[in-house]
Amino acid sequence: MGLKPMHTSHSTVLIGRRYLEHGFLEVAMRLFVRNPALVEKRDWTRLVERLMERHRIVDAMRVCEIGGVPVPCAQLLALGDGHLRRKDFEEAIRLYELGDADRERWARVVDLLTARPDQERRAIALAARHLVDQVPEVELRLAAGN
What we know:
By secondary structure, the protein is an all-alpha fold.
């Protein structure tokens, strides 16, 4: 007498939880991804927390998407702040984009970039994307003659 597929799926998720408790994140993630509909939000959230503790950002973002749980913006921004203090612009910018950084953080990045002449294009691009207010739709229609 074999296990029914539904029981197997539930037991797979149960075992995934146990692996998560023991810190085996790779195995837990693999088991959860096999049966995403059966995994509870708290399990996905805990997995994201543990991945973030290990700075496994890409995996954490993937788990947020699959599990439908919020992106840990505060943690991403804090990590980005640390990279910015160390002048690691690439990683700071990446983390700020993932964490949806506020205008103040982007202004700090641009300020630091403009202290270096070789960063002119990057500073302009970031300012255009994150600091310069978008032209209101009404002005766009007027400019187009509509």
